[in-house]
């Protein structure tokens, strides 16, 4: 082995060792840093405008935007947690009062007024040996469970407040420096990557395009689904429609369940308290409108912007969610998009070079 080869081997061995050790050190803080990077990337144009407005003082701009994120995250989450805990207890009390009034014993009469559906439900209840008394006990147990679940979740949040607050402030800390120095860090990183400048720019552009497409697709789809479902909640007279709408928006990005985790219990609620036509309307609206929006709007928005086939898009979202948690909804499509870009660069530069094929078609004269 020559001296330059020995130097190269030792250098890259040392480099890989240091990168591995640094990865281990940063691993506990990976998700706060990723969230900070995502927020910084999406709001960086606002940082540029604000920096210009404050006469080029990036520290002032970064501080203002970091405080803005603090206010926009902490205040809504705190209010939502208190409302959910309070209204879960109210819902439990409402169900107990409704059951105590003996409404379940009149349920067979109500079902008999619906010849087809009512008869089907009556036969179904007889086949599983459901009686008004057993249904009452089941409803009371379910109401107590749901109430305690929401209250316990809020309690767990309070118990783990130290870890949550630590991660959140680590994210804000990283966000501040990404605003302040992120542009210089990205430029330095691009310099050491051993690729042509045009290739590096294509990778950066593709990553930017994919992140914006995924955020736009997830965010707009969730908002539209929440508003459409909230319209039904309001018109049908569902208790706590505003809170249910907010929860629908929060759960909409989940690939399994999603909005059905909210409008499904609403259907069950109307089936119990009546009138039955409201349960049928909510069921039809949930399946035919709210869920269908997710099936068409999200793949169209993300696929069109990120230029990822629907097959790979679906599995990148599911795989990212399974591997990374909530942040995987964004990380999965970005990784697939970057891989597609790198494969395209390889085909253009190396495969075509080996076959003598030009990288681009000749321009007609």
Describe the structure.
- The protein is mainly alpha-helical and 365 residues long.
- The chain folds into 2 domains: 28-181, no CATH class; 192-349.
- Helix content is 85%, strand content 0%.
- The chain is built from 13 helices and no strands.
- Helix 8 runs antiparallel to helix 9.
- The chain starts with a helix and ends in a 10-residue tail after the last helix.
Shape: elongated
N-C termini distance: 53 Å
Give helix and strand order, one letter per element, not per position: HHHHHHHHHHHHH
Mean pLDDT: 75
Class computed from helices, strands and strand pairing: mainly alpha
Question: What's the gyration radius in Å?
Answer: 27 Å
Number of domains: 2
Total helical elements: 13
Instruction: Give the % helix.
Output: over 70%
Low-confidence stretches: 127-132, 359-365
The total of beta strands comes to 0
**How much strand content do the residues show?**
under 5%
Largest sheet: none
Concise structural overview:
This protein is an all-alpha fold and 365 residues long. It is 85% helix and 0% strand. It folds into two domains: 28-181, no CATH class; 192-349.
Task: Give the SSE map.
Layout: H1 3-26, H2 30-53, H3 58-100, H4 107-112, H5 115-127, H6 132-159, H7 161-192, H8 197-236, H9 241-251, H10 260-273, H11 276-306, H12 310-324, H13 328-355
Helix pairs in contact: 2-3, 2-7, 3-6, 3-7, 8-9, 8-11, 8-13, 9-10, 10-11, 12-13
